[in-house]
Description:
The protein is mainly beta. It has helices at 143-146, 227-243, 258-265, 269-281; strands spanning 8-17, 21-25, 34-37, 51-58, 64-67, 78-87, 91-95, 101-105, 123-130, 136-140, 161-170, 173-179, 186-192, 205-213, 219-222, 249-250, 285-288, 291-294. This is RNA-binding protein.
Amino acid sequence: MNLSAGHLLKLRVLRETSPYGWFLGEGDTEGQEVLLPYGEAVGTTPRVGEEVEVFLFHDDKERITATLRRPKLLFGQLARLEVADFHPRFGYFLEMGIGRQLLLPLKELPPERRDVWPQNGDELHVVMRQDKEGRMLARLAKIDDFAPLIFRAPSGWNNEWREGWVTDVFRDGVFTLVEGGVLGYGALGYIHDASMIHPLRIGQKFRARVTQVREDGRVSLSVRPAKETGRVEDADRLLAFMKERPGGAMPYSDETSADDIKRRFGLSKSAFKRALGKLMKEGLVTQKGTWTHLVSAEQPAQSSDNGDRVD
Length: 311
């Protein structure tokens, strides 16, 4: 008998030993036994001689223990688990449905991108594995892990807004699982950095617009609205920003670098220029060198000598 953490086994109740619980094994012969504590016998009272199905885990003293509780995943399986806690030395503790938590080690996360690490309440797609001592651990799910569960996104999703979760972060964007609803577990997607307003965290739930349904059934996504709608919203943001500034002017224009625009407004340079072009066409703003001014502003914009800087 292999008493291995993370598995479900059907075992026979050999005896009850107070004040501990029931000892389980494969039969009446001597062999490996595992304790089912009283506190883990939820919903029923086992009887000596009957067979029960239990889940095995390590208790606080590293002993293999049985429970009648049903976990959200077993060894080798994928599931979406909520982040319950974080320890700076060990990693993230995930709720797995048995009153104990599953550890996702820190090495599973990009060390140079702490800004995309999960927060409490985020939901991570993980696969259960074991460490060298046989203890249960989690690892972040990879594309191949999703393959048996996902479906090809229908063409009708194009330009629709869908909800999903960030599953992994790459150099120029994030991989996602888009919620499938009645269609099933979900479809795989990707959001490029240029299509984000701010960085998305691993495990973060988001709402995004499908910009393309690819031939392989995956989708490209953007958290930004369609260009025309986005242009109006972005223009309104820039206008409000300028109205709050002294002299109705800002040290940003078509000549400002893409990095400075992204850092200050969360916009790509092309989106910034579209919004600025709309305001100029409507006669609301004008550009002078590296500055943009409200046309209606009574005070002239101050020069960059006044200490104002791009930030």
